[in-house]
């Protein structure tokens, strides 16, 4: 399957102001690249829904103060089930709707994208294949050297500590392809950062 990625350029441009929080201007493009690879592995997935959802899934962080994001979203108790996580999802939906409308997407696509955004971090289980792909793409980027570096800042960890955190997340991957990609990327990152020594 060949996907015309230029069809999403207007959405990138419209959402760009909301990507200037929490290093989302790094996280989102890298996650988008992983989503493309996953969609190519799963022909039953809807490329538009998956790619629009990953592109917009974290823009809600824009509405939240960075100190609160770090304190509650990455360093507090139960970081995946707290008020700031729910808030970034609802804010993400609020911001995504006009972005998608202004760039010409149908109400049906908008509803499917927003259903994924609203719960992508906090919902215990995915609802369908598109949801599973977005969840995996959202995790995959953290296994790269860049993702490890950003993760160290977010969680206040060393690269080795962050590598161990990511190791514990591997069983949470929703697709076989996603897990395999994560394992390969994590091994490459461990070699690049000399985590056998450091």
UniProtKB/TrEMBL annotation:
Sequence ranges assigned to domain HD in this UniProt record: 36-140
InterPro entries: HD/PDEase_dom, HD_domain
Stored SUPFAM superfamilies: HD-domain/PDEase-like
Pfam families: HD
Name of the protein this chain belongs to: HD domain-containing protein
Organism annotation: Neotabrizicola shimadae
């Amino acid at each position: 399957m060949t996907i015309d990625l230029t069809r999403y350029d207007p959405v990138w441009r419209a959402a760009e102001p909301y990507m200037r929080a929490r290093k989302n201007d790094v996280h989102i493009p890298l996650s988008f690249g992983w989503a493309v690879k996953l969609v190519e592995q799963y022909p039953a997935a809807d490329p538009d829904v998956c790619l629009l959802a990953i592109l917009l899934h974290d823009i809600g962080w824009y509405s939240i103060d960075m100190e609160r994001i770090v304190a509650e979203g990455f360093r507090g108790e139960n970081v995946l089930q707290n008020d700031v996580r729910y808030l970034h999802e609802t804010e993400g939906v609020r911001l995504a709707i006009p972005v998608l409308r202004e760039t010409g997407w149908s109400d049906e696509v908008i509803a499917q994208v927003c259903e994924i955004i609203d719960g992508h971090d906090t919902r215990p289980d995915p609802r369908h294949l598109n949801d599973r792909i977005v969840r995996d793409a959202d995790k995959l980027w953290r296994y790269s050297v860049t993702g490890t570096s950003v993760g160290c800042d977010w969680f206040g960890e060393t690269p080795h500590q962050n590598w161990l955190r990511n190791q514990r997340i591997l069983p949470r991957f929703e697709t076989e392809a996603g897990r395999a990609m994560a394992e390969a990327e994590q091994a490459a990152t461990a070699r690049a950062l000399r985590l056998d020594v450091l």
